[in-house]
Amino acid sequence: MNSRLIRAALLCTAALGTATAQAKVEVQAVQHKSIGRMLVAKVSEDIAPGDYEALLQGIKDNPGQYAQKVVLLDSIGGGVQEAIRMGRLLHETGFSTLVPSTGVCQGSCVYLLAAGRARTVRGYVGIHRPYYPGGDSARAESAANGVRYNPAAYLQEMSIPSGLVAQMHSIDPQRMHVLSPEELARYRLN
Predict the structure, then answer these.
(1) How far apart are CA 99 and CA 71, in angstroms?
(2) CA angle at 91 for the pair 90 and 93, rounded to the nearest 5°
(3) 118: CATH
(4) How many angstroms separate the CA atoms of 111 and 151, rounded?
(5) What is the reported pLDDT for 133?
(6) DSSP annotation string for 77-108
(7) Does the pLDDT of residue 81 top 60, yes or no?
(8) 42 by DSSP, 3-state: which?
(9) Which structural domain range is residue 65 located in?
(10) How far apart are CA 76 and CA 48, in angstroms?
(11) In the chain, where do the E strands start and end?
(12) What is the pTM of this model?
């Protein structure tokens, strides 16, 4: 992602921040003087049930052609299932992902970052093994929700090397590992 686009996305962050401060998912069409029409989404706070629907509705409410689509990430993670659903939507609709210098993308937020057609990290990305309330396994969450859950297959869909899943699963859920610039490059996240 070029620096002009990053600057434009950061300017859009300010515009989205004034819309509804408590929102976790915001989507807004903006006009940038040199890039043109942009669709900017922002995902912040904790990823929770209903965020996929909010993202989908925001995209539907802003139809049309855009010179660029970008999602700004500043999230502490949350529900893995919801993050994967949101990530597939972002990928299918052609969004790039950006963690601004003032942002953090940790836990399940990494699934959103991975979904970007282009990925840029200026802030911090932290990973750990997901915490499952029904037990520390992917099967517990999958069985509880009746939904197929396979983060490795999802990341493979997004062209992310399998080493990321292995590293995530080696880190206790109560701990966080901040990815270095070298790790971000190795996992194609930046």
Answers:
(1) 9
(2) 65
(3) 3.90.226.10
(4) 8
(5) 60
(6) EE-HHHHHHHHHHHHHTT-EEEE-TT-EEETT
(7) yes
(8) strand
(9) 3-186
(10) 11
(11) 25-32, 36-47, 68-78, 96-99, 104-106, 119-121, 124-127, 177-178
(12) 0.82
